[in-house]
TrEMBL record:
Keywords: Transferase. This is Acetyltransferase-like isoleucine patch superfamily enzyme. One of its GO terms (molecular function) is transferase activity. It comes from Planococcus koreensis. The lineage of its organism: Bacteria, Bacillati, Bacillota, Bacilli, Bacillales. InterPro entries: Hexapep (IPR001451), Trans_hexapeptide_repeat (IPR050179), Trimer_LpxA-like_sf (IPR011004). PANTHER family: ACETYLTRANSFERASE, ACETYLTRANSFERASE YVOF-RELATED. It holds the Pfam family Hexapep_2. SUPFAM superfamilies: Trimeric LpxA-like enzymes. CDD domains: LbH_MAT_like.
Amino acid sequence: MRKTERHFVDGPNSLWHIYKTVPFWKVAKNFLIIQTARYTPFLPLKNWLYKKFLHMEIGEHTSFALMVMPDVMFPEKIKIGRNSVIGYNTTILAHEYLIKEYRLGEVIIGDEVLIGANSTILPGVEIGDGAIVSAATLVHKDVPSGAFVGGNPMKIIYTAEQMALRQQPES
């Protein structure tokens, strides 16, 4: 189960209430920072932009590949550990606007996590240390530490214990 705060709205769908939930100028600033970072090939510059202007928590040596899209409205709800890799064109969402409500939730990605290209991470999930997320995965629930997951919907392909057995040399 994802850990999100639910906020109900009256009248039109919740996206019509967007600037009641987040200031317009915050979204505009975040958009410019994210678009700059998406195209820069300089990893330390990306991390600096995200930390300085978007208030994301990013561990040392974490790498964002080209075209990664962090949440434009609530990037401060994203926390990523050290030495992780976020693959090409991955989207990390900390919000979701629905018809009668919107939801907000922190995304916590552990240390030494690999997120494959074109994945989408939904709000309110935690990805444990050492986990591997296969390319094009919809991460809609927590991922245990050390697990290998993939698919849409996401499924555990190997647990941490199974991964450890696979990495042992054959006798």
